[in-house]
Design brief:
Number of strands: 2
Structural class: mainly alpha
CATH superfamily: Cobalamin adenosyltransferase-like
GO biological process, one term: cobalamin metabolic process
Number of helices: 6
Organism: Peucedramus taeniatus (Olive warbler)
GO molecular function, one term: corrinoid adenosyltransferase activity
Order of helices and strands: EEHHHHHH
Keywords: ATP-binding, Nucleotide-binding, Transferase
CATH architecture: Up-down Bundle
Radius of gyration: 20 Å
Protein name: Corrinoid adenosyltransferase MMAB
Number of domains: 1
CATH topology: Hypothetical Protein Ta1238, Chain: A
Largest sheet: 2 strands, antiparallel
Length: 199
């Protein structure tokens, strides 16, 4: 009877399928966890987490660009889907479902131009330090983004991932750099510049 039915159990978070050191791509292919596809996926996941942290610091200061950061995190999910679908083993249905267009790249360029127009000219190297916590977190996100890009480029060159994914990460690092400067400016913080030590 319904009164005696056992309550539904939530699915377990662990599957044990990766215990042998292998994991599955979206196409169902089993590859070692050290495969460059999973390296790229891991770096992209770290990037999204870093941006999430930067978003929290920025939200506390009332920055209006926080919604952009959230949208970028959603786009990084799509980046991950494309990376998890190696073109060498993907069927047409897989490719259609995980394709990555140039539109997000162009959107980042628009955002970069908008913030750049509001910033003073860059005349020296800027140190990625805590002029403001939001700014420092965005600089850190930029560094993680560069690593993610370095992981993705070989996949694109091997024909395993969409070239627009690498373009997106390349443009995203520029966006995060400009945004770090913008955040410091909006909070009235002075950027720390590189000063060559005396010999």
């Amino acid at each position: 009877s319904p009164e005696r039915a056992a309550p539904e159990r939530a699915p377990r978070i662990y599957t044990r399928t990766g215990d042998s050191g292998f994991s599955s791509t979206f196409t169902g292919e089993r590859r070692p966890k050290g495969d460059r596809i999973f390296e790229a996926l891991g770096a992209t996941d770290e990037l999204s987490s870093a941006i999430g942290l930067a978003g929290e610091f920025s939200s506390e200061k009332g920055h209006t660009f926080v919604d952009q950061l959230h949208k970028i995190q959603c786009m990084l999910q799509d980046v991950g889907s494309n990376l998890a679908t190696p073109l060498s083993s993907a069927r047409e249905a897989h490719r259609k479902r995980t394709s990555f267009s140039e539109k997000p790249v162009l959107e980042l360029e628009q955002w970069i131009d908008s913030y750049s127009e509001q910033l003073p000219p860059l005349r020296a190297f800027i140190l990625p330090v805590g002029a403001a916590l939001s700014s420092a977190a965005l600089h850190f996100s930029r560094a993680v983004c560069r690593r993610a890009e370095r992981c993705v480029v070989p996949l694109v060159q091997a024909g395993e991932a969409d070239p627009n994914v690498a373009k997106y990460l390349n443009r995203l690092s520029d966006y995060l750099f400009v945004l770090a400067r913008y955040a410091a400016m909006k909070e009235g913080k002075e950027e720390k510049i590189y000063i060559k030590p005396e010999p």
